[in-house]
Amino acid sequence: MSSFRLYRIIKTFLQFGLDELIPSHMLPWYAKLIRFTLFWLRNKHQDKPSALRLRLAIESLGPVFVKFGQMLSTRRDLLPEDFANELALLQDQVPAFDGELAKAIILKAIGEETFNQHFSDFDIQPLASASIAQVHTATLLQDGQSFEVVLKVLRPNITETILADVKVMSLFAGVVAKFLPDGKRLRPKEVVNEYRKTIIDELDLNREAANATLLKHNFSQGNASDSVLYVPKVYSDFSHENVMVMERIYGIGVGEIATLQGLGVDMKLLAERGVEVFFTQVFRDSFFHADMHPGNVFVDATHPADPTWIAIDCGICGTLNREDKRYLAENFVAFFNRDYRKVAELHVDSGWVPSETSVDEFEFAIRTVCEPIFNKPLSEISFGQVLVSLFNTARRFNMEVQPQLVLLQKTLLYIEGLGRQLYPQLDLWQTAKPFLENWVKQQMGVKAVFKKIKENLPFWNEKLPEMPDLLYDYLKTTQVTRQKQMHLFTELKAQQHKNHKIIIGTLLFSTLCICAAIIFH
Fold this sequence. Notes:
Elements: H1 3-15, H2 29-37, H3 50-61, H4 63-73, H5 81-87, H6 99-110, H7 112-118, E1 119-120, E2 128-129, E3 133-142, E4 145-154, H8 158-179, H9 183-186, H10 188-202, H11 205-218, E5 229-230, E6 243-247, E7 252-253, H12 257-262, H13 267-285, E8 287-289, E9 297-300, E10 308-311, E11 317-319, H14 322-336, H15 340-350, H16 359-374, H17 383-396, H18 403-422, H19 428-444, H20 446-463, H21 467-520
Parallel strand pairs: 5-10
Antiparallel strand pairs: 1-3, 2-3, 3-4, 4-6, 7-9, 8-11, 9-10
Helix pairs in contact: 1-3, 3-4, 3-5, 4-5, 6-7, 8-10, 13-18, 13-19, 14-15, 14-19, 15-16, 16-17, 17-18, 19-20
């Protein structure tokens, strides 16, 4: 880690007065001494609130910290509301790096001969630039056809930069955990580790290509409902760890509300389809795009009355297992019906909170938090905020951090935010409730039993001819085991009888010795 980089980070934190977030009486003498030796680094933003100073400091430290701040803004279960709101304003606007350098990286990954054979019209000027990578447009020549594509290329030396900055974050996380009054509850070390895993995954474009391919497959199965989301095609033959080639899309940014309205797009349908996209990914496919912020979501408004969502940048995706899906769906349905007892029982049954947790106390805590929310009209209730409130309450009962649920919460907050931005009157509850109730019914009804039997039929069909042999082997093994047990029991009984004789003999001998000693005396 560069000493200059470390100094710059410390300088930034001190000049924005972030050291003041830790009460003076909690700092050890050596920390105060170090702070005193850096006397020339004073707080230059004393007139600003602490949350604003934190955001400005993160922005000045560059893209790696900005991305961390964006991730942290979704952890409303850990942060005060004012800090979460400020961090949510972080914008990842990064200057592009040299286009010639980008081309050199692409040529090295793909191969100059392959590049010249299959690509033309490469634009040195990047189409877009982000913290980890930037994209350039080109034309792909393949099988006698030409396709408009974009080439995504990682920034040079970005891995080293990120790992160095994450080390610094870990250092500060240790300080926060030790000295901040609420440091242990905030679990800063776990948050940094979570961020490290997430951002390292984003550095492998092969992984992103695989995610995009799977997501596209899930929404391209010919069902009418699958037209709600379009994922650009990835050309895997030309993709590498640091370069990815994908179809170029022409869409309207989901945040360009005026443009969408000017084209006559059905905003209500678009918002409802956003909700449908989320629940379909989670409950039908168990695989969801976990980074659907406005920069990664576009709208195909070719048919304004039938708009389609377009998702790019699939570097961060989440999964849920069968049990998590079932418990989550039942939790949502119980919330819709305000059955807090059921919510408490589900959390205990799922193992998300310790088994010794009092269901009565947990139910009362959930009711206390959620009842005021339900006093509002359904269209004014934030689904994401209800989920955050639930996790906050559960954390008081020692709920362990569930990484898959953190990604889910983040995605839900994004989707709900986009939906309400497009159509403020969106009633997320009414949109989602029929979907969830239908899913629970499908998973737990008679049809679900027959479906599971049907799915397992090939397995049992394969194993059925082996059943007589397996049964014979089982009975034979059982008989041999029983004979061994009887033999061992007999040996044990004989050994006990022998030990009994030895004990009696020893007692008699000891008694005779004691008597002889008394007579002799």
